[in-house]
Amino acid sequence: MSEPVTVNIPHKLGLTEAKSRVGSGIHTLGDIIPGASLTDHHWEGDHLHFTLEAVGQRIGSEMQIREDEVYAIFDLPPMLAMFANKIKEKLQKEAPKMLE
Q1: How far apart are CA 55 and CA 66, in angstroms?
Q2: Which of 3, 40, 42, 93 is the most buried (most CB within 10 A)?
Q3: How far apart are CA 61 and CA 80, in angstroms?
Q4: Contact 39, 30 (CB under 8 A)
Q5: How confident is the model at residue 1 (pLDDT cuts 50, 70, 90)?
Q6: Residues paired with residue 64 on neighbouring β-strands, in sequence order
């Protein structure tokens, strides 16, 4: 069974600027999970859907860009779910750098 990991990334950029910065920084997400790479991404309005692959596992993910926060959901497969807390800690630390 998969384990969703959620992270809220507050910002003061406004919707348009936050969306632009996330779009420009999406490639850095592969660095957050060791050995992961971004394999797919597409926008649906203010939602960015993307897939990371790590150790042969696919991580379906989504970022909802909002006026004052980015809400991210990473759906970890069972093999990676045991690392959910460590992954969440790293995401909380590293993901805000996408908005800089």
Answers
A1: 31
A2: 3
A3: 14
A4: no
A5: low
A6: 47, 71
The CATH class of the 3-99 domain is alpha beta
64/92: higher pLDDT: 64
Sheet containing strand 69-76, strands side by side: 3-10, 69-76, 57-65, 47-54, 37-44
Give the distance, in angstroms, between the CA of residue 55 and the centroid of all CA atoms in the same chain. Answer: 17
pTM assigned to the model: 0.88
- 56-93 in b/e form (b: 16+ CB < 10 A) is ebebbbbbebbeeebebebbbbeebbebeeebbebbee
* Residue among 24, 7, 2 at smallest CA distance from 64: 7
Q: In angstroms, what CA-CA distances link 15 with 19, 58, 100? A: 6, 28, 14
